[in-house]
Each structure stands twice: as C-alpha cells, then as structure tokens.
Write a structure and sequence with these properties.
Radius of gyration: 19 Å
Oligomer: single chain
CATH class of the largest domain: Mainly Beta
Number of strands: 7
Order of helices and strands: EHHEEEEEHHEH
Helix content: 40-55%
Number of helices: 5
CATH architecture of the largest domain: Roll
CATH topology of the largest domain: PH-domain like
Shape: elongated
C-alpha cells in the first residue's frame, strides 16, 4: 500500500486521487505563471505595484503547480477508509486521520458545481488544535469559521465519481454507527 503513513487498522476502501485533475491543475498553474511573467515584463517596468501583484500571483500559482506535481509523483491514495475512521490526503490542507467516533454528521453538497463533503465533528476545536502545522491550523480555523467544520474536501478530486465516493463514505459511517449502538 502506497500511503503517507503506516495504517494499522483494517483498510476497507482505498480511493485513488484523480490524475486528470492533478494534470489540469499543473497545466493551469503553468498557464497562469506564464501570464504572470508576461505581465511582469510588459507592465512591471512602469508600475512597481503592478509588478508586486503579478509576482505574488505568479508565486501562488507556482506553488499550486508544485503541490500538484508532488501529489502526482507521490502517493496516489486520496481517501482511505478503515474500521475506525478515514484518512484524507486529496485536499491541499490534508486532514489526515478522522476517527468515526469524532464524526457527528457528514453532509454532501454541491457549491458552484463542485461536489463537497463536509464532515461535522463533535469537538472541532480539539481536532484543529491537534494539527502540528500552523498553516493547517489557520486554514482549518477558516473552514470552521465559514463552513462550520474544519473537515471539508472535494469528492471530485478522486478517480471514482463523486456520488460513488459519497456513497462509500456515508455507508461506512452508518456502518460504524450501527456497530456502536
């Protein structure tokens, strides 16, 4: 199994990330970095503010492209579902392990045609505080502030279609709930 960490539980389902989506991200970031370089040379000589904005945008898209390239070359598993919870590695803010016993509710929705899975936790503040990365904590706090949960990811980032990913995740959560009643 090619994953980011050793998993000791019984793995029930492994859902790989969509390589097509990663390639689209890489190509899009290359396009925007190219446009940023062109803008910097075309307009940056006259206005320093424009040059700074263009460099910041180019840097952001370069980081997006590097992240997608790293994901494309690394572990292909985006979602790993076990008896005790799930590991999410597909989003830019990797959630890591989320235990079923911490999950209160899972809601699948579409926002601007993007399929999202929002996992509402019993104690979201504790989940956020356990993250080692300051950037991860900050981004999860923003998710919690705007969405109501720190755990939110797109079900469109996987090789299987979003409805299938949602069905599998919800089914395993319901199975856990039945086992623990």
């Amino acid at each position: 199994m090619n994953v980011c960490c050793k998993i000791n539980e019984n793995v029930l389902v492994e859902i790989p990330m969509s390589k097509i989506e990663l390639i689209k991200t890489i190509l899009g970031s290359l396009l925007f970095v190219s446009i940023s370089v062109w803008f910097a040379f075309a307009f940056g000589q006259e206005q320093r503010l424009v040059a700074m904005i263009v460099v910041a945008c180019g840097g952001f898209f370069a980081l997006c492209g590097l992240w997608a390239t790293w994901r494309l070359c690394g572990s292909s598993q985006g979602l790993i579902i076990t008896d005790t919870g799930f590991y999410e590695y597909a989003s830019a803010v990797v959630q890591g392990f989320v235990a079923w016993e911490e999950v209160e509710e899972i809601i699948c929705l579409k926002y601007q045609r993007q399929p999202l899975i929002n996992v509402f936790l019993k104690n979201p503040e504790e989940f956020i505080s356990q993250k080692k990365s300051t950037i991860c904590r900050f981004l999860q706090k923003q998710n919690y502030r705007f969405i109501g949960t720190p755990v939110s990811f797109s079900s469109g980032d996987f090789q299987q279609n979003s409805e299938e990913v949602e069905r599998i995740l919800l089914g395993q959560f319901e199975s856990f709930q039945k086992r623990t009643q």
